[in-house]
Amino acid sequence: MKRLQRWFPFLSWPRPDAALLRSEAMAGLAVGLMVIPQGVAYAALAGMPLVTGIYASMLPALLAVLFSSSVQLSVGPTALSCLLVSASLTGLAEPGSARWVELAVWLALLSGLLQVALGLMRFGWLLNLVNAPVLMAFTQAAALLIIGSQLRDLLGIQLSWEPWLQAPALHGPSLAFGLASLALLQLARRWKPAFPSVLLIVLASAALSWALDFEAGGGQVVGTLPQGLPALYWPARPELSTLTQLLLPTLIITLVSFLETASSAKVDSERQGKRWNQNQDLIGQGLGKLASGFSGAFPTSSSFSRSALNLYAGARTGWATLFSVVVVFGALLVFTPVLRHVPQAVLAAIVLVAVLGLIKPREFARLWRISRVEAVIAGVTFAVTLLAAPRLYWGVLAGVLMALSRFVFQRLRPRIIEVGQHPDGSLRDRLLWKLPPLAAHTYALRMDAALDFASAADFERAIIEYLARHPDTQQVCLFAQPINRIDATGVELFAKLVRQLQTRHIRLHISGIKLPVEQALRRADCLRASPQLALYRTDAEALTALQRPGRLADMPCDPWPVI
Q1: Backbone dihedral angles phi then psi of residue 559, each to the nearest 5 degrees
Q2: Cis? peptide before 168, omega within 30° of 0
Q3: Residue 226: closest CA among 345, 135, 340
Q4: Number of H helices, E strands in the chain
Q5: Are the beta carbons of 405 and 380 closer than 8 angstroms?
Q6: What is the largest CA-CA distance in the chain?
């Protein structure tokens, strides 16, 4: 049974009773009523036919919850993913056209296949390629771009920005609808988050628009939406050049959308006191994207706001998502005619409210206090994302490359210190704390890194340069506890240093060597018993031997059990 549950996580759901079904139904109703207007608004942001936002809220949500470990996440359209779709396809097709839809579907299919493959191969660790500062900076830059993209609809500007700047003209009714909706949504969000205020405001705006004949007065409305379930969408086989153009956007959408999932899934897992199964969520989210593509829609992701609403409304299992899918399905059958009169300004307000919370300029100041290097990386990511628009993925790529470069630099330049004994008994950086040497004619060092191909050169340089400056050195003591791994390059270097020290009649002391490192060195015959080599279980034993030279010969050189 456990094997089946591993591949089909929904088999582990609790058997529902009446009380559970009631609470899950209420949570599903709240999320379903919220996702309908949000889906339409986000579809407009992606440049897709508006009904595809509803399509992306049904089958993708269903498959994602059935095959994910995080069952309380709300999967569907999100502002960030939709912005990435729009940015990726700009210049390749006309927004809303059949070609645009086809390319968006391919983005969903390719991203879905990639996520499923990564999940099956247990490659969830790739999530670590994007650190928190890069994600924070990219998200805030993207939020600003989303806000900018919605201002035209919010203000009722029917021209492009250039002619409008020459002869400014606003559509008063659109502006009124937009600002009023924005204010009401903000108030409702603070007053009662679980209340379906988004849907209520959409219905009220539709009724008012119809009563005032808003469309006849030059206002832009949603228009007619098709009813019924989506037909199976099978895109035409793309050309190789098209696939090449979609490759980088696919990678970025996959990465960013899963980071969106992670931000919610980690909170949910910590709340339940369990370990987050990122590989299973990769599979579930990937299947959701595939379902979205075959529905004729765009890539989906986990919505932080809807997931929070799901939890706030009392959802405990995946049954809540099933109820929300039923609500969206029912709305697709009977509710779409009502949306015809909704002003576009109201949809813009919905998008703005969803992303305003992502703007957090204080995060940059806080990051500057923590790490100026990472603050600079975040700042460059932010700037590149804005300057490269609509090719937003260059911002993520720039941030990832800078973060990885910093990581590699740190690995190539490990922290190697000369050790001294602090008055409190601890071993610290002798030069930093201005401590005396551990013993006369002794070089005591510690390297806080693995002894591998990246650190070997610096490790060797530190010892050789010290011996060149202090030719009277008689002892070298390596406090090896921080070295938890060694590779072939490290073993070869260690053997070379042992030979050099023995040639110069310098005694080598090694304290606290860990078992994996010791085993590798013994297999290479680098720890052969010798008067020039002393091994110690603890730092205290090493200090005693160094400070009482008469006892050196009594210290163990044979293997010992190291834990």
Answers
A1: -60, 150
A2: no
A3: 340
A4: 23, 8
A5: no
A6: 102
- Rounded CA-CA distance 215/8 in Å is 49
| Same structural domain, 46 and 127 | yes
Asked which of 359, 381, 404 is the last residue of a domain, the reply is: 359
The span from the CA of 103 to the CA of 220, in Å, is: 26
Phi, psi of 76 (to 5 degrees): 165, -155
Residue ending a domain, among 316, 339, 359, is 359
User: Taking residues 544-550, what's their average pLDDT?
Assistant: 76
- pLDDT value at 561 more than 50: no
Residue pair 176/156 in contact by the 8 Å Cβ criterion = no
Using a 10 angstrom Cβ sphere, with 0-12 exposed, 13-18 middle and 19 or more buried, the burial of residue 560 is exposed
φ, ψ of residue 508 to 5 degrees: the values are -105, 125
Mean residue pLDDT across the chain = 88
CB 509 within 8 A of CB 542: yes
Rounded-to-5 percentages of helix, strand, coil across the chain = 65, 5, 30
Q: How far apart are CA 471 and CA 292, in angstroms?
A: 71
Identity of the residue numbered 537:
R
Would 395 be classed as within a structural domain? no
Range of the domain at 52: 20-161+170-359
State the amino acid at position 28 in one-letter form.
G
Share of the chain above pLDDT 70, in %: 93
Q: Give me 50's structure tokens.
A: 């508006």
Q: DSSP secondary-structure letter at 512?
A: S
3-state secondary structure 390-453: CCCHHHHHHHHHHHHHHHHHHHHCCCEEEEEECCCCCEEEHHHHCCCCCCCCEEEEEECCCECC
Name residue 517's amino acid: V
Residue 163 confidence (pLDDT) = 57
Which helix (H) or strand (E) segment is 554 a member of? Answer: none
